[in-house]
Amino acid sequence: MQNKLLQVKNLKKQFQVAGGMFEKKEFVNAVIDVSFEIKEGTTFSLVGESGCGKSTTGRLITRLIDPTSGSITLNGNEVGYLKQSELGDLRETVQMIFQDPYASLNPRMKVKEIIEEPLIIHTKLSKGERENLVLEMLNIVGLNTEYANRYAHEFSGGQRQRIGIARALITKPKLIIADEPVSALDVSIQSQILNLLKKLQQEYQLSYLFISHDLSVVEHISHEIGVMYLGSIVEIATKEALFVNPLHPYTKALIASVPVADPLLRRKKETLKGDIPNPKNPPTGCTFHTRCPIAQELCKLEVPKMRQITEQQSVACHFVEKIEEV
User: Fold this and answer.
1) Per the domain annotation, does 119 fall within a domain?
2) Structural domain of residue 53, as residue ranges?
3) What are the CA-CA distances from residue 109 to residues 117, 124, 151, 227, 303 (Å)?
4) Nearby residues of 92 by Cβ (< 8 Å), 6 or more positions away
């Protein structure tokens, strides 16, 4: 049985978006009561439309931003409310791969300096030891060691992302937050990076929180998937269960929207009515009820609780039993 590496419970993040000393303050809830767990050596993916809170959740776990409430437990230790001076061990254990492989690399630093920087901050290794580790890491991610003295602008997008992966791996973390790591790359390069991440996971027993809006990418790399809508998780399932039998109406619509080349395999279209509500003024009750094809009066009044439907699936829907009728 795999141990739980990360447990997130009732996580919430609220941002102030307006209001000053003499004005009424306005807030937006970017993350609302999010709970999930990641087992050692597995990939948990967060998927959903832009603005649903996926990236904010990742930044909360890495403590790039502080949570408003809730719990973040890593290896049994609460890390959600550590002071800035206490974050050193967390930064070493949890690393991040960013969406834009160019913007996340310092253009004034050589590749070897970019990859070496975490070692300077988190270890007491000698310069020679650090240089050897950098060259070893370049080989591991599939880059020539001769590239060590070049700058980021001299590389392609895929090569830059390999540099970002090398930087994330250099401290031997247990958890990597990958925030849309292939969305800025060509399709052919995407598969190379995804296969590299899977290979590294097997070799180093890494755990991933993989954040993406692309269900085809998520299907390729995930073990478990959490579907987010307007700051909340509406369904959690294993990869196999989610794509074979999605339960939440929003999940069904997302999967139906994925293009399928073979006309004989085309899925039934699930049309959503309306636009995503304004997060500053979300709907009452279930936030999805304004677009849901099976919504009833209860959905407008009461927030649905996440409940386990099968051993592999949990869903937050009052009328999940009626979804098959849609």
Assistant:
1) no
2) 4-104+173-325
3) 10, 21, 6, 38, 49
4) 118, 122, 171, 173
In a domain, 122, yes or no: no
- Between CA 174 and CA 5 the distance in angstroms is 8
Taking Cα atoms as reference points, which of 33, 43, 2 lies closest to residue 225?
43
* Residue 135 counted as domain residue: no
pTM listed for this prediction: 0.91
In the sheet with 232-238, reading across from the earlier edge strand, the strands are 94-97, 175-179, 207-212, 43-47, 224-229, 232-238, 313-315, 307-310
Distances (CA, A) of 141 to 101, 164, 215: 14, 10, 25
pLDDT in tens, the chain (326 residues): 678 999 999 999 999 887 766 777 888 999 999 999 999 999 999 999 888 999 999 999 999 999 999 999 999 999 999 998 889 889 889 999 998 888 889 999 999 999 999 999 998 999 999 999 999 999 999 999 999 999 999 999 999 999 999 999 999 999 999 999 999 888 889 999 999 999 999 999 999 999 999 998 999 999 999 999 999 999 999 999 999 999 999 999 999 887 766 665 555 555 677 778 888 888 999 999 999 988 999 999 999 999 999 999 999 999 987 555 44
Instruction: Give residue 34's identity as a one-letter amino acid code.
Output: V
> Domain count of the chain?
1
CATH of the domain at 296: 3.40.50.300
